[in-house]
Recover the amino acids of this structure.
């Protein structure tokens, strides 16, 4: 729906940047990838909101390749760290990158394959992420002058302002993606090993039952972008395969967002956009590579606490704490005080369940008092009954 396009684009762009900034300061290798996934989902929402549905689905597909490789690769790293710690009865955090370092020497396959996935998610040619991420960026940029974002018109905001703004935010997220992924690789695989002398002897590559799938995903992370090559790269093979396959499904919806017009960029513009995106990615990698020094990193137990904005990023802008205080705790207190003690224990258990039992017992007790076994009592009851019946007939 065109009306929904505006919030989808805005939320997607803000999500991509917001989650990327969090990934810049995480030490848990799985949290880096988790917030990277949130950021990449923001990319896909930007594409959907802009009407570039094929680009969004394309990135969903390629992202599955290299992000699965990254998560399984991190699992391989955590497995190796856990095995080393278990062998030496060490209870340090096996997921904290500050306890790793230099693992390329002990896990060469995982090291090489995770670098492939890192280059893919950063958007470096010729890896899969280059094609899908750049198609999103080009699609958002191209629709800047043709957008019919209904929500934007109602708010008096030019549609092109929204889409060009989303394009800039997406570029910023791409820069940070390349930076935090390079940071993860540097602190995990490069520099001196910080595991410990005793633990280091037990480090090694994971079994092939774990490494084998990484190889398959590595191949897909390299060649997965060929499923939907752009027209400017037709010399590499068939172009727009995914686009033609999805046209019957999303074609009409895409044209509604653009007011019925077909969107085409000149080859020169496409090359400029591709070059800008690649330079942004290379810049993020170069910045992390030159500014971060793995040899200066110390294990988690010796690391100083973060301060200032770094602490805010490490704690994820305190979103979890705010969610707990604003939503979880009030809901818990209301549920415990009103719904449990008031409704469940007081009304349902107290009145309905226990009240029914008390009433039934009272009726039974009252009835048992009438069955006393005294003939005189029974005679008086009979007399009273006869009087009541006669009185009823007399007064009728």
């Amino acid at each position: 729906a065109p009306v929904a396009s505006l919030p989808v684009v805005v939320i997607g762009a803000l999500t991509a940047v917001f989650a990327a900034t969090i990934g810049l300061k995480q030490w848990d290798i799985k949290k880096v990838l988790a917030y990277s996934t949130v950021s990449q989902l923001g990319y896909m929402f930007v594409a959907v909101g802009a009407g570039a549905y094929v680009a969004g689905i394309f990135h969903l597909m390629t992202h599955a390749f290299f992000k699965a490789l990254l998560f399984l690769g991190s699992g391989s790293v955590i497995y190796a760290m856990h095995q080393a710690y278990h062998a030496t009865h060490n209870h340090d955090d096996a997921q904290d990158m500050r306890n790793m370092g230099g693992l390329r020497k002990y896990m060469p396959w995982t090291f090489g394959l995770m670098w492939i996935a890192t280059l893919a998610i950063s958007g470096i040619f010729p890896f899969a992420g280059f094609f899908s991420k750049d198609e999103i960026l080009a699609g958002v940029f191209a629709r800047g002058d043709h957008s019919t974002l209904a929500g934007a018109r109602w708010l008096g905001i030019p549609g092109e302002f929204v889409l060009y703004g989303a394009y800039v935010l997406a570029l910023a997220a791409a820069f940070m993606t390349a930076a935090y992924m390079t940071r993860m690789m540097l602190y995990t695989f490069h520099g001196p090993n910080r595991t410990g002398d005793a633990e280091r002897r037990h480090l090694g590559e994971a079994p092939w039952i774990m490494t084998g799938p990484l190889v398959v995903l590595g191949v897909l992370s390299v060649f997965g972008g060929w499923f939907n090559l752009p027209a400017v790269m037709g010399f590499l093979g068939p172009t727009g395969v995914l686009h033609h396959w999805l046209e019957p499904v999303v074609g009409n919806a895409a044209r509604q967002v653009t007011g019925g017009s077909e969107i085409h960029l000149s080859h020169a513009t496409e090359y400029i956009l591709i070059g800008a995106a690649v330079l942004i990615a290379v810049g993020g990698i170069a910045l992390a590579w030159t500014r971060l020094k793995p040899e200066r990193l110390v294990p988690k137990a010796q690391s100083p606490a973060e301060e200032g904005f770094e602490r805010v990023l490490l704690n994820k802008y305190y979103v979890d704490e705010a969610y707990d205080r604003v939503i979880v705790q009030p809901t818990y207190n209301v549920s415990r005080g009103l719904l449990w003690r008031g409704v469940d224990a007081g009304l349902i258990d107290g009145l309905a369940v226990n009240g029914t039992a008390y009433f039934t017992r009272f009726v039974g007790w009252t009835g048992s008092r009438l069955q006393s076994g005294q003939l005189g009592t029974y005679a008086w009851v009979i007399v009273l009954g006869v009087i009541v019946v006669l009185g009823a007939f007399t007064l009728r």
Remarks:
- The chain has two domains: 2-304, 326-395.
- The mean pLDDT is 85.
- The two ends are 75 Å apart (CA to CA).
